[in-house]
Design brief:
With about 425 residues, the chain is α/β, with parallel strands linked by helices. The chain has two domains: about 240 residues, Aspartate Aminotransferase, domain 2 (3-Layer(aba) Sandwich); about 130 residues, Alpha-Beta Complex (Aspartate Aminotransferase, domain 1). It has 16 helices and 15 strands. The strands form four sheets. A seven-stranded mixed sheet has the order 4-10-9-8-7-5-6, sandwiched between helices. Strands 11-12-15-14 form a four-stranded antiparallel sheet. Bound molecules: pyridoxal-5'-phosphate. Pyridoxal-5'-phosphate (PLP) binds next to helix 5.
Length: about 425
């Protein structure tokens, strides 16, 4: 980055600092990952110079001959990866992909059913503060109070009452397998479209570590930057040709302008990587790591939402981690002290939440990024024990820095053994 260093030292210095943060710490945010150097190179390329409004073979600008090939490669690889027959790779984000699906087949004021944000859902599933919540009449389903998992009979009953035009399934903070067939049946029963948002679990689905919704539901949306380990972006898939046409119109000219062709090239690279045997092994390891982390934390006495995990993330319920006065450590406090110890996690609401989303009683922990750095089950045990030490110490004495400082030192030494890009370090 010699040019950037010379011409914009301010930004260059901040990128350097962020690189240091990523290398020296442990990234356990469930929605983050570390892309390959090939993806970085594609996204940082001259493809960003070009306008390519439209689709391959039907562009509104000249000079798109290479962009057509790139976008077709991205679409074909994505279809192959998930067994879709139609793919749109232009969505700039997962949220955009969802809006584009709704806009393709719904009218303002139509009814939508989706998972409650505070129980694992996503803003773009009709939250009142999101454009999707303003455009559509949204009803949420949640998880069962006892099992903290989805209760399909209950959701079916709710759907019969609401008679929605759209049922959305998929989540940002749900540690268990989602039964897409059950959702499709519920939707069919009431004449609704069914969208599966696999933003978080796409990499697991691609590798066969989680059942696929493609070919089951009507629309599948995803991000490309979470477990799929590609550049920041979104994509939409279907196996219905007519719906495919509607999706393409909804994306362009419906909601977006020129596609980010450098990112689409990065997506194509990511999809090629995800088609490899290495990626299957990677996805398997993500789940093994997550299960190991869950086991050690439970052995240490912590409470996990739903009692464990089937995927890449786990949700700690901190309401059982109490100080001497009986007040529990909040998600915000836990996120802060772990951050000080070099362990990046995020606070998260839990199904029985009593605190605000800015404070919360939960912590979301994910293994995709640390797995990308080559860490295995033994390493997860170490990390879980560090988390345990810091949280228990802070529960004993909120002002204590003893374990924070000790763990920070151990984390920094440990992280240095797992470079982000071994070939350039
Ligand atoms: C992350 C996520 C999204 C949105 O992704 P952005 O690219 O941040 O817009 C959509 N749906 C779910 C379930 C997610 O977890």
């Amino acid at each position: 980055m010699s040019d950037l260093a010379k011409h914009d030292p301010e930004i260059f210095a901040l990128i350097e600092k962020e690189y240091g943060r990523q290398v020296n710490g442990l990234e356990l945010i469930a929605s983050e990952n570390v892309v390959s150097k090939s993806v970085l190179e594609a996204v940082g390329s001259i493809l960003t110079n070009k306008y390519a409004e439209g689709y391959p073979g039907k562009r509104y600008y000249g000079g798109c001959e290479f962009h057509d090939v790139i976008e077709n490669l991205a679409r074909d690889r994505l279809c192959k990866l998930f067994g879709a027959t139609h793919a749109n790779v232009q969505a700039v984000s997962g949220s955009q992909a969802n809006q584009e699906v709704y806009f393709a087949v719904m009218q303002p004021k139509d009814r939508m059913m989706s998972q409650d944000l505070s129980q694992g859902g996503h803003l773009s599933h009709g939250s009142p503060v999101n454009i999707t919540g303003k455009l559509y009449e949204v009803t949420h389903y949640g998880v069962d109070k006892e099992t903290e998992t989805l209760d399909y009979a209950q959701i079916a009953e709710q759907a019969r009452q609401i008679k929605p035009q759209m049922i959305v399934c998929g989540a940002s903070a749900y540690p268990r397998i989602i039964d897409f067939k059950a959702f499709k049946e519920i939707a069919e029963d009431v004449g609704a479209y069914c969208t599966a948002d696999i933003a978080h679990i796409a990499g697991l689905v691609a590798a066969g570590e989680h059942p696929s919704p493609v070919g089951v539901v009507d629309f599948t949306t995803t991000t490309t930057h979470k477990t799929l380990r590609g550049p920041r972006g979104g994509a939409i898939m279907t196996t219905d040709d007519e719906l495919g046409v509607k999706i393409d119109r909804s994306v362009f000219p419906g909601t977006q302008g020129g596609p980010l062709m450098h990112v689409i090239a990065g997506k194509a690279v990511c999809f090629k990587e995800a088609l490899s045997p290495d990626f299957k092994a990677y996805a398997k390891q993500i789940v093994k790591n997550s299960k190991k982390m869950a086991k050690v934390l439970m052995d240490e006495g912590f409470t996990l939402v739903s009692g464990g995990t089937d995927n890449h993330l786990l949700l700690m319920n901190l309401s059982t981690l109490k100080d001497a006065t009986g007040k529990h450590i909040t998600g915000l406090e836990a996120e802060t002290v772990l951050g000080q110890a070099g362990i990046t996690v995020n606070k998260n609401t839990i199904p029985s939440e009593k605190l605000s989303p800015f404070v919360t009683s939960g912590l979301r922990i994910g293994t995709p990024a640390v797995t990308s750095r080559g860490m295995k089950e033994d390493d997860m045990e170490k990390i879980a024990l560090w988390i345990s030490r810091v949280l228990k110490d802070v529960a004993k004495d909120r002002s204590s820095k003893t374990e924070i400082n000790a763990v920070k030192k151990e984390v920094t030494e440990f992280a240095a053994k797992f470079p982000l890009y071994p070939e350039v370090n």
